[in-house]
Amino acid sequence: MQEDHAIALLKGGDLAGLKELVGRYQVEAVHCAYLILGDRQTAEDMAQTAFLKVAERIRTFKDGRPFRPWFMRIVTNEALKVAMDADKRVSLEGKDERDAAASWLLDANPGPEQLVDNLENRRKVWQALQQLTPKQRSAVVMRYYLDMRDREIAIELSRSLSSIKWSLHAARKRLRELLGTEPDEAGSRATSASDRPDKKRSKS
Amino acid sequence: MSEHPLKPLLEHVAGQAIPPDEIDLWPGVASRIQQAGQPAKRHGVRRVPRPAIPVLVAVMLLALALLLIGPDNVLAALRGLFGYVPGIGIVDESAGLRVLAEPVAIEREGIRVSVEQVVVDSEQTVVVYEINGVGRDAYPLEESDPGCVSSPAIRLPDGALMGMESGTMGGSGSSFAARFVFPSISSDVEGFTLLILCLEGTRAGAAPENWEFTLRLIPAPEDFVMAPVLVVTEAPKPTASAEPPSRVGLYLERVIDLENSFVLIGTFRQGSSLPGAMVHGISEWPTIEDASGYIVPIVTPNDLDLVSSEVGIFPWAYEVPKGFTSPLTITLEAVAVEFPADVGFEFDVGSDPQPGQEWHLDRPIEVAGHKVVLVRAVRLADGYELHFESDPSVSHISVDSVDHRPRGGGGGGQQGEFSVAFHYGEPVPDGVLRFRISGLFARHAGPWTLSWEPPAGSHTPGTLVVPQPCVSLDRWLEVSQRPSAMPESGGDTLLLFGRIVDVGQPRSPENAGVFKVDLATGARQIIGPGYWPSISPDGTRIAYSLEDGLHILDLATGDDRHVPGTSINDYGPQWSPDGTRIAFNRTDDFNLYVVNTDGMQLMQATEGPESEQLVGWMPDDDTLAYVLTGTTGGMPLRFIDLTTGAVRDGFVLDERKGLDAAVSPDGRRIAYSGVVPGRAGYGVYVADIDGSSEQLLIHFDNWNVYEPAWSPDGSWLAVAVFDPTAEVSWPAPALVQIDTCNVVPLLGVEGEVYGWSP
Fold first, then answer.
1. Which residues, 6 or more positions from B62, have their beta carbon under 8 angstroms from its beta carbon?
2. One-character DSSP codes across B326-383
C-alpha cells in the first residue's frame, strides 16, 4: 500500500490506513521519542499516542504534503511535553550538570567518525543526552536525527532562533573542522521542478 | 543534502536500546482506539445550566442558520435534547448552551482571521474560524517542509490551557475555514482566549504568528436556531467484545432535518460475521436510491464528529437533498476486511544476488481463502521486492521477513496486483529467504441495505429536479466508433495536447505533445513537445509552454521563439481575439500576466495573494475573465479591464465545478466542467456569462467529460471524454453541437482539444 493510499483510507475512517502508517513509521517514532525521553516504555507509549493523534488529526492533513515531517513533529511535540513534565522533578543542582553536559555534546570531541564507531563514545553521548534539558535534547534530536531546520526547531520549542542557532553552532563548527566539509545549512537546497505546485487538477 | 554525521550515531544509540524488530505498536494503538470509543470519563466538567434569559446573538449567525434550517424546524429543534447547528455539529442542549457573544476578527499584514462561531455544551466547546488573505509566498517551497502544523489551544482566565480534541480544516490557497473541538468550559467561566500559534501550513516567519482572540460567552438565547435531530432507531448499546452484536449490516440511527436536505447518520456493524477477521471501515461510497430509481447525490458533512465507538462498528453520515420519492434505499456493496493468516513461503536467491536481478517464481499461495500468487522477486540495492497477483478483491497482504529484520519496508499496487518491499541495509541477506504472511486485506462483498421513509410532512416527495444531459453516454456509445460528418463550425483546425507517437506505450512525457488536426481531412500534423497549446485566431501561430517558458511557433515558417521574461512557472497561454497579445498564468505568484506576441511589454494583470486561473479573453481585446481558486464556497468568476485595472465580479462557480472554464468567442456564454448532482463523473455545462440558463450539455455517467473549447462561431464545443475504468491513457475528443446535441467523435485521435481555429 502506498503512503498516500494509506492516508486516504484513514481519512475515510479505515483503520487499515493507520495500520499501514504505524508499520512504516513506528521504528522512527519510537527511536525519536526514546532519544528525547530516555525511557523505552514511555517512548513506546508516547509513540502510540502520536499515532492516535494522527488518526484524530488526519483530516487536517493536506493531501499532497509529505507525511513524515508532519508526523514527526507530532512525535517530538508529544515527547517534549512528557519530558518537560518529568523534568519538573529534577533539582536545580541537576540543571547545572545538564548545562555542562550540553556543552560536551554540542561541541563533541572526539570526531564524528570515532563517535559512530566507538561503543564507549556512544555511551557517553547517550549519558550526555539524558543530562540535557528536555528542550536542549529535543533540539539535538530535531536537528541531527530528524534533519529539521533551525527556524522550525525554534518554533517547535518556543525559543528564539538565535538561541537555537547558538546552541547548535558549536557542533556545526566542530564538525566542519573534523570533516573538512560544509555543514548542511538550512535552506541551501535549490528548488527543483518537483517543488512546483500542481498547475491544474487532473481529472483523468 | 548529505546526512549529518551525528545522525547515524543517534540511530545507533536508539537502535541498540530498542531493536527495530522488537517494536510493534499496532496492537497497542488498536487497543487504545477501542478504549477511546468507550464513554469518556470527564472530571471537573460542570454542566451548563439552561439559559434563564434570552440574549441576542450575532445577526449573521441567526440569518445563516435560518437559511439552512428553515423556520419550521427551528421550533422543533427547541423541543429536542439534541440539535444540529450548521458549522458546529450536533450539540446537547439538555443542560443549556452558551455561544459566542459576537464574532471577533483580527487583521495583521493583510491576513484576516475571524472567529465566527463558538458553542459550548456540557460535553464540548466547538470553535469555528476563518482565515483569509494568506499569500502563496507564505507557504513552503520545498516538499520536505510541512509548514506550520501547530493546533490551536484555549487559555482560560486562570491561565490553564486546553488542547483540541479533534478538528477539521478546509480550503486552500488564501482562504481556510477551521472547526476545532475542545473540552467543555465550565459555566462559571465567562470567556476565554483562543491561541493560534501559527497559521496552518505556512512557513516559519512568513506569516504573522501568535494570534490571540479574546472571546466572550453568553447563554444561548431562547430563539437560538438549531435543526432537529430525529432518533430513527435506538442505537444499540455498547457490547463487550466477547458478545458482539449478531447482525451485520447498515444501521440508520439519527436524521438531521434541514430545510432542503436530510443528514442521515448511522453505522455499519460487523456483528458476529467474519469471526477472526476485522472490518476496517467503509471504503466505498454507498448507493442511495429513491423509489423512482434515482441515485440520490451524496454529500458528506464536515461538521459531525464520527468516531467509532467499538471495534467493528463504523459510523457514517450522508447528506441527501429533499424531494426524492420515498422510501430511500441505502446499499453498501462491500467493506474492507483484514483476514488473519499464518502462511509461510521461501525462495532461494543464491549466494551472490545482484541488484536488479529477478527471480520468476509464479508460486500460488492459499491465504485466508484467497489465491495469491508470488509472481517474482527483485533484488533492490538494499533488499528485495516481492510482486504478487491475486483475485481482484485482494488489495494487499501483510508479509514479515522471518530470519532478517528489515530496516524499512514499502510496497504499493492496486486490487489484485501489489508488491511488498524489504530494505535491509548492509548486509543484504542471501540464500534461502523465508517470509510469513500474517494478514490479507480484501474487499468483502455484501451487499447490505437499509430502507428509510422520512416522516410525513418533512418534505415534498417527487420534487427533486434531476438534471438530464443533452448528450448521454448511450448516444456516445452509439456514435463513438463510426465516422460522422465533421461540423460546420467556422473552423477547420483543432489544436490538441495528446499522444504524438502513434504506436506504443502508455501515456508518458516522451509520447505526449502538441499536434493539430485538419477537420476536413482528418490529417494530423505533429507540432512537437509542449503543453497547454493555444492557436492564434487566424490559425497561423501557436503559443505553448515548455520547460524554459512560453514559446510562439509560426506554423508557416517553423520559426519557434521563446517569449522573453517567461519561465517554467508560466503556463496556459491564450491569444487575445485580435492576435496581438497573450495572457497566461504564472505560478511564481499565482497571478495573471499579459505579453505582446513579439515578447515585448510583459505586464502583470492581477495582483494580491489570491490564486487566479485564467478563463479567457473577452471579445473587446482588453478584458480577461478569470476565476479565483482556493476560496471557500466555490470559485468566483471575475473580469479585469487591462487598461484601467478595474475588476468586475461575475457569478460563482460552485465547488462542484472544474477549473477548465472557457468563454465563448462572443463573450456571451461560458462552458465549464462540473460534477452532476446524483451522478458520478464530470460533465460539461453551458451557461450565460452571468451564470443563468445553465444547461447540462454532456454527461456520461461515471466517465469524465471536461476541457471544453469553443468553435470559432460559438456553435460547437470540443470536449475530452475519458473512461476511468478503461485501460486507456488519453481522453478521446468529442465535438458537440450545442443547440442540437449532435455529437461527433474524432476517431483515431487521443488527447484534449485546446484550440479551434479557421
1. B223, B225
2. SPEEEEEEEEEEEEEEEEEEEEE--SS--TT-EEEEEEEEEETTEEEEEEEEEE-SSE
CA torsion angle B142 B144 B145 B150 (round to 10): 150
User: What single DSSP character describes residue A34?
Assistant: H
* Residue B749 CA, distance from chain mean position: 30
User: At B434, is the secondary structure helix, strand, or coil?
Assistant: strand
> Are residues A164 and A153 in contact, defined by beta-carbon separation less than 8 angstroms?
yes
Residue in the structure block whose three cell numbers are 435560518: B66
Q: Cβ separation of B24 and A26 shorter than 8 Å?
A: yes
Neighbours of B661 (CB within 10 A): 24
- The rounded distance, in Å, linking the Cα atoms of B256 and B230 is 6
Q: What percent of chain A has pLDDT over 90?
A: 5
Q: Which chain A residues contact residue B286 at CB under 8 A?
A: none
How, if at all, do strands B743-745 and B732-737 pair? antiparallel
Residue B406, C-beta contacts closer than 8 angstroms, at least 6 positions apart:
B383, B422, B423, B424
What is the interface pTM, i.e. ipTM, of the complex?
A: 0.71
Interface residue of B11, B21, B26 to substitute, partner A, most A CBs within 10 Å: B26
Which backbone phi and psi does B709 adopt, to 5 degrees? -135, 130
Nearest Cα residue in chain B from A106: B6
Q: Where on the phi/psi map is residue B67: left (φ > 0), alpha (ψ -120 to 50), or beta?
A: alpha
Which residues in chain B are closer than 8 Å to A193, comparing Cβ atoms? 547, 568
Tens of pLDDT along B472-522? 888 999 988 777 778 877 778 999 988 888 765 666 666 788 999 998 888
Q: Are A115 and B9 in contact (CB under 8 A)?
A: yes
Closest alpha carbon to A85 in A142, A42, A31: A42
Of B11, B280, B673, the CB nearest to A15: B280
Global pTM value = 0.57
Closest-CA residue of B relative to A69 is B146
| pLDDT category of residue A164 using cuts at 50, 70 and 90 | low
Nearest residue to B278 (alpha-carbon basis) of B258, B251, B256, B248: B248
